[in-house]
Amino acid sequence: MSPTGVLRPLRGLAVAAVVAACATPSVPNSDALNQATVLIQHAKGHGTGAIIGPNQVLTAYHVVAGAPVAVEFFEGPKVGGSVRWYDEALDVALVEVEVPQRYKATKLACQELRAGQHLVAVGHPMRNRWVPRDGRLPRTEEVGGSGLVPLGFEIGLGTSGAPVFDDTGQVAGIALAILAERRSASAGYDEYKDTGIGLMLPATAFCASLHGQ
Predict the structure, then answer these.
(1) Residues in the chain with pLDDT values less than 50
(2) Calpha distance 133→144 (Å, rounded)
(3) E strand or H helix that includes residue 153
(4) Pairwise CA distance, residues 90 & 177, whole Å
């Protein structure tokens, strides 16, 4: 039977694992992308976020829901943060945090995605930190009415909320889940097999909401 696609969140767990390698990264302005990306930690694991404004970090809501968080900057300090705004339906949130002056905010790419465009996700899969993964967007159609589109390359647990940059260094979306497969619609949850392929929410889905924050 043909596989059935399902979604799995990318919240990091406090366990060790081997992260599958994917395409060799070809990252534009890698240092700038790293500096725009943060590590978000809480008692049960971690996720990823992006600096998008003065003292504002964008991430996945399921990373920060109901838990005090600490935000760590690239080669920089770790400070406390609090949820300023969220949209549970979209699974996005803004964390208010004191951003050191040397870390500049990145802009949102609020134009429509294009099939075939090059994208780079920077995240923290498992115990690894500031790991880039890149590839070409295979299509712009959403998966199963989820609002998410497939990145076409692998990302790992702990990459929830990771910025997905375009070639100008702007945030074209955020990584929220990975695609899993099962052999039939009746297969149990424990029979799902993760593909590792990332799913992102395009920035066009939340640009209007964030501009009012």
Answers:
(1) 1-6, 11-26, 187, 189
(2) 24
(3) strand 149-154
(4) 12
